[in-house]
Write a structure and sequence with these properties.
Blueprint lengths: L6 E4 L5 H8 L3 E4 L10 H7 L3 E5 L6 H4 L7 E5 L8 H6 L3 E3 L6 H16 L2 H9 L20 E5 L3 H12 L3 E5 L6 H7 L1 E3 L2 H7 L2 E4 L13 H5 L6 E4 L8 H10 L4 E4 L10 H4 L4 E3 L8 H18 L18
Parallel strand pairs: 1-2, 1-3, 3-4, 4-5, 6-7, 6-9, 7-8, 9-10, 10-11, 11-12
Helix pairs in contact: 1-13, 5-7
The structure holds (2R)-2,3-dihydroxypropanoic acid.
Length: about 325
């Protein structure tokens, strides 16, 4: 009798044609609609799974894998993987993977757009117009901050940070960055970016963009103290993870005029948004969409599928998933 095929769980509908590749190798348990899985539901889904294709909505840690004795691989559709407790997975020999690279340019485009929207008060201006407040060309109305010739600070200089730096060049910006590890000189030159300390980055940036991975160590890295160290004319843009910013302190800085403006695509309790931020007129708020273009979302799913197939020991890259975030046992 033929061996039963490994079983993989797909936590929400993605793209049927790309998911179909899984059917070549596995018995696939699909989730019929986009689902906010209740606590316990993920554990139940993983209990009889050998592999899983999941998204940022799915938090997988110790509790979720406790009963998943067959689970060998978890492929995350997303470059960030703070939804996975990597240590808990690694301890059980479960390979975790993510989707770097394929979303770099799309996400950098969006980060730049959000920074510009905050600086030039684009959504605020639109609300003002829609509210019927436009009485005639306003010489003194809605003055924003300059982009060209200003100093861009990038906190976290991985692929996406570098993409933003390359874009800044076209706008004649001076680019500073801070990263745990200084980049090789050739990369700094290609990005026309200069490494600086975190303190200098906060003090010197006209526009600060957060693009670093979220970890327990950098929780609220932008807190009241960091905001106080920034120029009052500066803007803050976050396209990384909400937990990097103390949202209460940010709302207070925006309301008091301690900081000129912010652009936020990510939130600590998303999809909930802190009401204090909703009350600020000088913040552009978007619902975690920096990578949201159809080609990019498809590329993310395609890479996650490749990762899962390979991590489970099938296909041309059997045993060598393209982007593991845990060591391959
Ligand atoms: C990611 O991939 O981590 C983004 O937040 C969503 O694309």
């Amino acid at each position: 009798m033929a061996e039963p095929r490994p079983r993989v769980w797909v936590s929400q509908p993605l793209y049927a044609d790309l998911e179909a590749r899984l059917d070549e190798w596995f018995e696939v348990a699909r989730t019929p609609r986009v689902t906010d899985h209740a606590p316990g539901a993920i554990a139940a889904a993983l209990a009889d799974a050998d592999g899983a294709l999941v998204t940022l909505n799915d938090r997988i840690g110790e509790t979720e894998v406790a009963g998943a004795s067959r689970l060998r691989a978890v492929a995350n559709v997303g470059v960030g993987y703070d939804n996975l407790d990597v240590a808990a997975l690694a301890a059980r020999g479960i390979v975790a993977t993510n989707t770097p690279g394929v979303l770099t340019e799309t996400t950098a485009d969006f980060g730049f757009a959000l920074m510009m929207a905050a600086a030039r008060r684009i959504t605020e201006a639109e609300h003002w117009l829609r509210d019927g407040r436009w009485q005639g060309w306003g010489f003194h109305e809605l003055l924003g901050a300059e982009i060209h010739g200003s100093t861009l600070g990038i906190l976290g200089m991985g692929r996406i940070g570098q993409g933003i730096a390359r874009r800044a060049r076209g706008f004649g910006m001076r680019v500073l960055y801070h990263n745990r590890h200084r980049l090789p000189e050739a990369v700094e030159e290609a990005c026309a970016a200069t490494w600086t300390t975190r303190a200098a980055l906060l003090a010197d940036s006209d526009h600060l963009v957060l693009v670093l991975p979220y970890t327990a160590d950098n929780h609220h890295i932008i807190d009241a103290g960091a905001l106080a160290a920034m120029k009052p004319t500066a803007t803050l843009t976050n396209i990384a993870r909400g937990g990097l910013v103390d949202e209460g302190a940010l709302a207070e800085a925006l309301q008091s005029g301690r900081l000129a403006a912010a652009g936020l695509d990510v939130f600590e309790g998303e999809p909930a948004v802190d009401p204090r931020l909703l009350a600020c007129r000088n913040v552009v708020l978007t619902p975690h969409v920096a990578s949201a273009s159809l080609p990019t979302r498809r590329a993310m799913v395609a890479l996650a599928v490749d990762n899962l197939v390979a991590a489970m020991g099938f296909g041309p890259d059997a045993g060598h998933p393209p982007s593991p975030v845990t060591r391959i046992p």
